[in-house]
Amino acid sequence: MKNTQKNIRKEKFSKVALFTKKIKLKFGGLIKSIVVFGSIVKSDKPIKEKSDIDIWIMLDDTDEKLSKSKEEIESNIKLTAMEIGDLHVQIHYITQFWKWLRQGDPVLFNFLRFGYPIYDSGFIKPAQRLLKLGMIPPSEETILMYSKSAQEQIKKAEECQKIGIISLYNSMVCISQAVSMKILKHRPDPSEISGILKKLYDSNYIQQEYVDYYENIYNIWKKIDHNELKNVTVELFEEEYKKAKKFVLNMQKILDKTSKK
Predict the structure, then answer these.
(1) pTM (2 decimals)?
(2) CA nearest 51: which of 59, 60, 42?
(3) What's the CA gap between 182 and 133, in Å, rounded?
(4) What is the pLDDT of residue 113?
(5) Which strands sit side by side in the sheet containing 31-37, from one edge to the other?
(6) Is the pLDDT of residue 1 over 50?
(7) 2-16, 92-106, 200-214 — which is least confidently predicted?
(8) CATH 3.30.460.10 domain span(s) along the chain
């Protein structure tokens, strides 16, 4: 078993070496680092003959040669990997590398912790050493950025609830207009709908609670529209959602019933 594993790893690394030689010959200085990771570099874990070799390549995107034919070069690299076989290639760039390093990105940390540099022009090995020495903590700028992002996401969630209320209001307006056009032959403006619903109540089409449901959400919508209601709570949204759903379902039944006549 040991000999088999040793032979498999040797064969896999020979493919990596051939791949490295070929793409360095083709693209020279554009290739800044080639790192292998995964089961091939974990001696404590068995590797299968059919397992792909994970390869992380860093290209110099500050070089004009790459900017002019980026897609062509990437395709050529991947084609070379396919021709050799058993190689799974991920392509990244210098500017991305520095961005990840500055931000303390866990994706980069994963490559640095578990990757084995086959070729490096001074990027990966120094970064691996700094990480090992505990000298790449997330910067204060990164901490501040994530903190601000958290607050922004909360605001977005709150805004979504506000948008949700507006959507509920619009659904009640639309179904009310549909019923009004069917029964009263009139398409009312939103401000008229309360009166239309009262007529429907007087004609025994709906109960008083449905008039109240609409008047309530209409007032909430006006407060949102006039920026008087800045935050919509989860409780308010859930309550209005239940009412709006009940309202729309009931009005739809009325519409269906009258359509059959």
Answers:
(1) 0.52
(2) 42
(3) 75
(4) 86
(5) 87-93, 53-59, 31-37, 116-120
(6) no
(7) 2-16
(8) 2-138
Rounded to whole angstroms, the Cα distance separating 94 from 96 reads 5
Kindly provide the residue ranges of all beta strands, DSSP E only, lying in the chain, ordered along the sequence.
Answer: 31-37, 53-59, 87-93, 116-120
146, pLDDT greater than 80: no
Identify the architecture of domain 141-260 in CATH: Up-down Bundle (1.20)
- Closest listed residue to residue 87, CA positions, set 15, 34, 10: 15
How many angstroms separate the CA atoms of 137 and 99, rounded? Answer: 14
Q: Which numeric CATH code is attached to 2-138? A: 3.30.460.10
Q: What digits encode the pLDDT tens for the residues 172-188?
A: 999 999 999 999 999 99
DSSP state letter for 28: G
Q: Which two tokens stand for residue 164?
A: 């949700």
As given in the structure block, the two tokens for residue 184 are: 């009263």
Task: Evaluate if residue 58 carries a pLDDT over 80.
Answer: yes
CATH 1.20.120 region(s) of the chain? 141-260
What confidence tens digit (pLDDT) does each residue in 186-211 have? Answer: 999 999 999 999 999 999 999 999 99
> Regarding beta strands 31-37 and 53-59, do their DSSP bridges make them parallel or antiparallel, or are they unpaired?
antiparallel
Tell whether the model's pLDDT for residue 57 goes beyond 80: yes
| Structure tokens that stand for 165 in this block | 């209320």
Q: Which residues contact 95 (CB under 8 A, 6 or more apart)?
A: 61, 62
Fill in the DSSP letter of residue 2: H
Residue 38's region, left for phi above 0, alpha for psi from -120 to 50, else beta, is left
End-to-end CA distance of the chain: 81
Nearest to 200 by CA among 257, 243, 136: 257
User: H-helix or E-strand containing 78?
Assistant: helix 70-84
Contact 196, 237 (CB under 8 A): no
What the block records as the tokens of 11 is: 């064969």
